[in-house]
């Protein structure tokens, strides 16, 4: 998890507690006038905006897994919180109902939880991913799994610049293009948009994701040419089978290029492979990644 103000403050608890222990030990062998006065700290309180948001979400979309007792935070399953020592307030940092029966439309109140680091949602959720998701500027992990949402992925998602994991998968109603703003997520290490109904060409802005190691775009309707310039690391895995991509530059097979060919099985690749390609080590190592194509497609001289 990214180190930031909230979590730095947690680390600050240790030296504070140790100092208080030292003072207590010192007071056993010194006069009262030698012992500094330690101010009494007020008990932490909940951030009112966070409470308002999670209770509104629960009333709209819950219960999931178990009923909540609003007076007992230990019953708030799916909610994780942390203490912000600056404000002495508890803040919601994780919201996870990916395994529960999340009912109704995507609640706008989710985007009011501005200290969220992890958001996982699934179940029978409907509605759309709102543009206001950009308010979650501290988010590091976003998962939207197996929902009934009928939505595009908004351009505003590109404002979540601290994201390390983005997984929007197995949502038949998620359609439209992969937004060009995805290239703004330069901290992204894991991207999965498999098993949706996304379409259009893959954005070349993906080339900006230099930390990306795993990219899963399987079983959509992506089309056009696969842009090989988006592959930024020889260790990266690009899985793009079961789409409608019809072209891949043969330059990818050159042994002078470090990265491997993407997995483009069951697409619409076609045409004739140049003879020089068959002489490369990379071809004989990885040609299976372009071998099986959809019915009626495939390279005429594939071997």
Note down, in words, how this protein is organized.
This protein is of the alpha/beta class. Helices cover 16% and strands 20% of the residues. The protein contains four helices and 15 strands. The model is unreliable at 1-5 and 7-31 (pLDDT under 50).
By oligomeric state, this entry counts as single chain
Radius of gyration: 25 Å
**Unreliable segments of 5+ consecutive residues:** 1-5, 7-31
The total count of strands amounts to 15
End-to-end CA span: 46 Å
Percent helix range: 10-25%
Structural class estimated from helices and strands: alpha/beta
Shape: elongated
Topology:
Blueprint: H1 5-27, E1 45-46, H2 48-61, E2 79-84, E3 89-97, E4 118-121, E5 141-145, E6 165-169, E7 175-176, E8 190-192, E9 197-200, E10 214-216, E11 221-226, E12 237-239, E13 244-248, E14 270-271, H3 275-278, H4 281-286, E15 298-299
Parallel strand pairs: 1-3, 3-4, 4-5, 5-6, 6-8, 7-9, 8-10, 9-11, 10-12, 11-13, 14-15
Antiparallel strand pairs: 2-3
């Amino acid at each position: 998890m990214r180190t930031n103000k909230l979590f730095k403050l947690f680390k600050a608890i240790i030296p504070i507690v140790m100092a208080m222990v030292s003072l207590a030990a010192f007071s056993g062998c010194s006069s009262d006038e030698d012992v500094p006065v330690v101010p009494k700290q007020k008990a932490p309180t909940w951030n009112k905006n966070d409470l308002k948001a999670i209770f509104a979400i629960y009333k709209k979309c819950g219960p999931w897994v178990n009923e909540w007792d609003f007076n007992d935070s230990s019953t708030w399953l799916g909610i994780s919180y942390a203490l912000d020592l600056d404000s002495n307030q508890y803040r919601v940092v994780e919201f996870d109902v990916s395994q529960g029966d999340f009912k109704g439309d995507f609640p706008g109140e989710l985007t009011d939880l501005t200290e969220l680091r992890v958001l996982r949602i699934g179940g029978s959720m409907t509605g759309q991913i709102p543009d206001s998701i950009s308010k979650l500027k501290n988010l590091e992990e976003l998962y939207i799994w197996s929902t009934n949402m009928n939505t595009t992925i908004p351009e505003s998602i590109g404002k979540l610049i601290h994201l390390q994991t983005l997984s929007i998968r197995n949502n038949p109603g998620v359609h439209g293009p992969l937004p060009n703003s995805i290239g703004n997520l330069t901290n992204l290490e894991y991207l999965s948009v498999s098993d949706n109904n996304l379409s259009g060409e893959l954005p070349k802005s993906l080339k900006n994701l230099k930390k990306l190691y795993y990219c899963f775009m399987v079983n959509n309707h992506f089309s056009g040419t696969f842009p090989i310039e988006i592959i930024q690391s020889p260790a990266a895995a690009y899985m793009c089978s079961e789409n409608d991509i019809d072209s891949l530059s043969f330059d990818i097979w050159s042994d002078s290029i470090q990265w491997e060919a993407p997995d483009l099985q069951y697409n619409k690749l076609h045409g004739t492979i140049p003879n020089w390609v068959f002489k490369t080590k990379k071809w004989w190592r990885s040609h299976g990644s372009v071998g099986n194509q959809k019915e009626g497609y495939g390279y005429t001289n594939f071997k």
